[in-house]
Amino acid sequence: MIAAGGRRCGPTRAPARLARWLLGGAAAAWPLVARAQQSMPVIGLLGITSLGNNEARLRAFRQGLKEIGYVEGENVALEYRWAEDQIDRLPALAADLVQRRAAVIFAISPPVVLAAKTAIKTIPIVFIINEDPVRLGLVASLNRPGGNLTGINILIAEVTAKRLDLLRELMPSATRVGVLVNPANATNTETTLREMKTAARTTRLQVKVLNASTSQEIEAAFASLLHERPDALFVGAEAYFFNRRVQLVVLAASHRLPAIYSQRDFVETGGLMSYGTNIADAFRQIGVYAGRIVKGVKPADLPVVQASKFELVINLPTARLEVPPMLLARADEVTNDRRGYKFLPVSMFQSGRRTWRCVSSSSSEIFQRLAPSSANSFEEQQQSRMRYCASLVLTSSGLTPTSPITRRSASISPEMRTSSASTRRSADFRRPRSQRCAR
Fold it and tell me: How many whole angstroms separate alpha carbon 407 and alpha carbon 388?
């Protein structure tokens, strides 16, 4: 359309020329981006479950890489291969990572490590396993691994006896315990049952073994408990069970069966109690090892790390029974979903005092209160404080302690006296909200 004066009206062709220019620039830049990605070192991750079940842990792995100076997509590429609970796929997935010329491969769980060791002879492998790598033949020794493998032993199998002791402490009258294992993972099952039977003889418990390798077999295992009902359930440390943790937690709750698990993820799903390694911290350490290997450090020069962070987590609303105060006091985290509180024990250095920090998930309020210290010896003071802290947890959850507890006024530290107004109100957090600010 031509207007008076010979000027062109309506849309011009400038946007079209701009679009062609932008597309041409992007096309020219694409080969540069592709070459940059190809020049990045590649770290392969080989797992037996799926990406969705490991996202939180992989964030910790990336954090470990970042500590060494590597960021995914910027100066390092991560290639993920997941077997989706099909162990027979592992050799092919490992071979695929070899073809991608990975600088290092991260193998998660013993079956993955064994498959990677068989398929990969020269590429460095870092692993996370729950058994002794020397006994499995993966390394020559912990301090001098030798070969192309190193990693972390999260010691889940080694703390089997400890988990059974905690379950017995929760239920002192228990005489029969069901043990759920996955026969498809023969190595892990053998280790779990060996440690379990040894610990059961010491505690005089009868053990009933339940085998399950599929979702249907898990249902059948719980159905069999209707005929020979145990007093409690011990869920083995198994990658497949982690993948089916929602099903396990729901079945244990529907059967009113107290259960202990190996990882806190089960408790966060709604399970009763867990004791084991801080897995996220282990993934972070593996990220550090992988980054060091990419920089040129040989796996043989990196000793196998023994996990040192263990945590006891208890979910009070799931308990449906009286939890011993001393067990609560030793917990690293006690959750109370009904009121949105998490109770975290905090060690006060030098003085040896112990306090519960109650964190409300619905607000930013943080409450602290020290236990009384009127006992004579240091040991008596510790016992008194632990009982007092446990009484606070039980009072908040609406439960009753299993033993009488004398409540005394708490001594407030000087740091708390000089803290903010919200923290000063924390000393009487058990009072109604309307009275906390009445000063």
Answer: 7
